[in-house]
């Protein structure tokens, strides 16, 4: 139980990324494409998505672009990497396309002021729980919150030095996303609880932003004592 | 800025621990005493504190025991390691003793049910913010949330493999506690934001409990890309 050998093979899955033209979505798409997965970058603008995909596809990776609804329908797994502002509206409109799929929410509900980042209140408890409430026919998993977009997109960085905390209520789904995280070089997926505990993981991004400011870093996290 | 060399020398400070006879308090006291600090274990019962201190003091370390009020008055830095239930009441009663001091809150407001641990709502936002509200003449810092009590007390463990996230609004106080954390072998203190961002760090303990359950570990955290 919990050993990497037990995790499913996800190499043949198509990964769609809503908000795939933003830094986080683009960076995750790039790394998953390098790992060998087919990737569909979704965006409000199919044209913009196509351009971003063409840029990555030029390197020989299997990346295409589409509007968010087409991308949602095309993916075996769909990663939600949109800004918090607009998160609920986007998912509400894609309920049919996302039905029956694993939806991976990596959105951090944060505000920013002169003091830095802070956690915004979410009526459902967290962005991931909001997604679960809006997508009753999907299986929502929370993951990829702390992966630096800067490092994901940096062509000189071969390995990302971080663990990805994976949360969800369905064991098969969290195992699948744990395996997916592990396909990115350097990253290890670690199961870190049920969806009701997603708020702390999302909110921790504000703490890592404080770390980055103080230490001039692109901080990630490693969980110790897990083999 | 942020380099260990900038941190103050805290080797001569007396560290008092409220709730010093619980596993976390006892374990922190043990490690800080090994590091060379004078430690006062506080407890509701002076007798119980005295016994716990005698057990540690027998190893040659400078540990004494006292009731919580006496311990609070004796410490240069006072660590609060009591259960969440009773946190507010204890601090309310020690306002005078804690005035003018750095108070380090490591309390995690968690509930437990069949599904594991979950975060309890705190009107002030977090245990640390509650402490700050109740102790207006003290400087509250949040730290030591994720350090495994089991490892702290394990005599066969020489180094604790974790970073301690340190939060607070006063730079001198967070530097002091960052330095204090670094005195425990293996541990590194990392500044991780203002007190308003303490809830995510406290709540993350529920995630680490999920990790421990799944992977049979005593998980800690390392922040990557910080030298």
TrEMBL record, chains A, B:
Gene Ontology CC: plasma membrane
Pyrroline-5-carboxylate reductase catalytic N-terminal domain ranges (all copies): 14-109
GO biological process entries: copper ion import; NADPH regeneration
Segment forming the signal sequence: none
Coiled coil residues, start to end: none
Pfam families per the UniProt record, alphabetical: F420_oxidored
Keywords: Oxidoreductase
UniProt GO molecular function: coenzyme F420 binding; cupric reductase (NADH) activity; ferric-chelate reductase (NADPH) activity; NADP binding; oxidoreductase activity, acting on NAD(P)H
InterPro entries for this protein: NAD(P)-bd_dom_sf (IPR036291), NpdG (IPR010185), P5C_Rdtase_cat_N (IPR028939), STEAP_metalloreductase (IPR051267)
Keyword match Oxidoreductase: yes
Protein name (database record): NADPH-dependent F420 reductase
Organism: Candidatus Protofrankia datiscae
